């Protein structure tokens, strides 16, 4: 079953269970997927759906940070509930050791010697960790390894 079909099935299940919070989060996700399909005039595959989910997860994390700074616990709770639903559809996250191994292999295979070669390493690592790790954190690790 495709990821998009699984999300649609989960939406029906949430409707039947009258789970309003989960249903609202899934509807937001389905709307984002449909918007992307309309904008690009294509049918999204699992990788593209995962990219949409990843973007929404990042938005929720940023919102949570902002709401915590603004002392809005009601909005923090709402965003955290949406984040939990979205993370159900993300692939299994990589462990710290797996990320390190991927970065080390990319540095070795690309022959990167310093920070000027960061683009090569990021280009090699990104397809392997897409959706399974935060690229901002991975980029910071690569930068630290190449600098040190």
Automatic annotation (TrEMBL):
Matching InterPro entries: Asn/Gln_tRNA_amidoTrase-B-like, GatB_Yqey_C_2, YqeY/Aim41, YqeY/Aim41_N
Signal peptide: none
Name this protein carries in UniProt: GatB/YqeY domain-containing protein
């Amino acid at each position: 079953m495709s990821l998009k079909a699984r999300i649609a099935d989960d939406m029906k299940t949430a409707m039947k269970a009258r789970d309003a919070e989960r249903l609202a989060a899934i509807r937001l996700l389905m709307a984002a997927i449909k918007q992307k399909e309309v904008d690009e005039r294509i049918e999204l595959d699992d990788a593209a759906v995962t990219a949409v989910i990843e973007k929404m997860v990042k938005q929720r994390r940023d919102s949570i940070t902002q709401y915590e700074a603004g002392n809005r616990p009601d909005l923090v709770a709402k965003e955290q509930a949406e984040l939990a639903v979205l993370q159900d559809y993300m692939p299994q996250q990589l462990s710290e050791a797996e990320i390190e191994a991927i970065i080390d292999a990319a540095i070795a295979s690309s022959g990167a010697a310093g920070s000027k070669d960061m683009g090569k390493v990021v280009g090699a690592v990104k397809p392997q960790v897409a959706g399974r790790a935060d690229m901002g954190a991975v980029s910071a690790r690569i930068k630290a390894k190449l600098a040190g």
